[in-house]
Amino acid sequence: MQPLRIAVLGMVEGNGHPYSWSAMFNNYDKQTMAECPYPAIPNYLAKEPAEKLQIQGASVTHIWTDDPRDAAHVAKASLIPHVVSRPEDVIGHVDAVMITTDKGHEHVERCRPFVEAGLPLFVDKPLVDNESDLAQFRRWVRDGAPIMSSSCMRYCKEYMPYRTSIHSLGELRYTSITTCKSWERYGIHALESIYPILGPGFISAQNVGTQDRNIVHFKHRLHGDVMVLAMDDMYGSHGILQLCGTQANVTVTAQDTFYSFKSQLEAFIHFLKTGERPFPFSETEELMRMIIAGIRSRDEGGRVVRLEEITAN
């Protein structure tokens, strides 16, 4: 079978996914990648053995970025053969599209041409940050559009033992997770770290923080109290997970960014080849309600917002 042809579309400040994700499919030019404006990317790519770097069965064949100069550099660094002048130019030339931007309020319009063309989509986290856009994606998925979105933290290998079982901890009473940067763009990293462990059943959110210091208390139907912190400059504590139960506790820190990204992208390729979702869209929908509830609570002075308020109808 011929490898699937993937288009990488979009690049915004603070997000270098077009470089790293494309390299995980195509390999990369070390000299050019060394000039990547996100030094962490060439650093973690260089740690991977050559035989483990690439995702099999697909390649990134086309790229477009908001600034054309970025596209030319990413293409050279990540060995992408085609740079296009408009995102829509990839229609008819690729098998799927990845929207590699993390501003949720832009995603409906970035995705619309490809949904209408029937192309499968992977949308970088968060899928949305507002109720009306969640309603639009819900309609598209309901009507059969093959859309997938997730944080790479869903695939964090350090958390995997607790996705399998938390029985040894007893009954969970308290969970916490931390991230740097904004709630709107990085809160989903924290939320999707804990969601596969706790499962669905989040009831309410209360954000008692500020725009740059989000401190969000969630209530879960089965697992008690959950604290999620997203603070702009807290770079030293991204991905610190704490699970406290009636019999034991554990603290785990995310370490292997490459593994999480590659596993996420492999899940998308599996979805393309089989049509089987790696997790139901209802999970993405609940996570987006959590993001929106955190924003609404903060904007309304710390009011407790029940997730059922976020209807997405």
TrEMBL record:
Domain of life: Bacteria
One Pfam family per UniProt: GFO_IDH_MocA
Residues of the Gfo/Idh/MocA-like oxidoreductase N-terminal domain: 56-132
Transmembrane spans: none
Listed name of the protein: Dehydrogenase
Family annotation (Gene3D superfamilies): Dihydrodipicolinate Reductase, domain 2, NAD(P)-binding Rossmann-like Domain
InterPro entries: Gfo/Idh/MocA-like_OxRdtase_N (IPR000683), NAD(P)-bd_dom_sf (IPR036291)
